[in-house]
Design goal:
Blueprint lengths: L1 H18 L11 E5 L5 H13 L15 E5 L10 H4 L1 E5 L6 E5 H7 L1 H10 L6 H7 L3 E3 L8 H4 L40
Parallel strand pairs: 1-2, 2-5
Antiparallel strand pairs: 3-4
Length: 193
């Protein structure tokens, strides 16, 4: 009966190892360099979050740790749309009674420029153990253009990300085509017809 139990355990272990989809030791982590100068915060965070989770890889698993490292430089040169520099508020609580602290985005940019992009990116990640243990430490944000990971990224800069495109301007008015006679265009735009 001891041989049967030993055989059953080894068969179970063999079956477990053969059905394992992707062992963690085979994970290949790349380093991505992103220049945040003149990039919109939300669009840039929406580009960074899937890379941290590993959604761009064919070996992605929602319950697995398969994301890459992301190094963001020039975080002090990010941009907001509209009047968000003065209207957007960042709040945190100190833990003491009456300890709710509020800062405008412009004030936070002057004090901690990295935290604006960090809060936007982490807000796009699901709140679970993968985020806290694995994903957050792989996001490296720097206010200037200098960073200590040049040897990891390399000098050829082949892993650098392209800038996130801004909203495309179209020559349409409320979905009507260019040749529509009833459409009035603003004075600074010319008609292509």
């Amino acid at each position: 009966s001891i041989d049967q139990r030993g055989c059953a355990c080894s068969c179970l272990l063999q079956n477990l190892l053969s059905t394992m989809s992707f062992p963690g030791r085979q994970a290949q982590r790349a380093w991505h360099l992103i220049d945040a100068s003149n990039q919109t915060v939300g669009r840039l965070a929406a580009t960074i979050a899937p890379i941290l989770k590993g959604k761009h890889k064919p070996t992605y698993r929602p319950n697995g740790d398969c994301g890459d490292y992301v190094v963001v430089i020039n975080a002090d040169k990010v941009d907001f749309t509209g009047k968000k520099w003065t209207d957007k508020l960042y709040r945190h609580h100190t833990g003491y009674p009456g300890g709710l602290k509020t800062r405008r985005a412009l004030d936070l940019l002057q004090r901690q420029p990295e935290s604006i992009l960090r809060k936007a990116t982490l807000g796009m990640l699901s709140r679970n153990n993968l985020r806290h243990k694995y994903i957050e430490p792989r996001l490296r944000i720097y206010a200037g253009s200098e960073h200590p990971y040049a040897s990891m990224i390399g000098t050829d800069m082949s892993n650098t990300m392209e800038p996130v495109p801004r909203k495309k301007e179209a020559n349409y008015h409320f979905g009507l085509g260019k040749g529509y006679a009833g459409a009035t265009l603003p004075k600074d735009r010319k008609s292509d017809s």
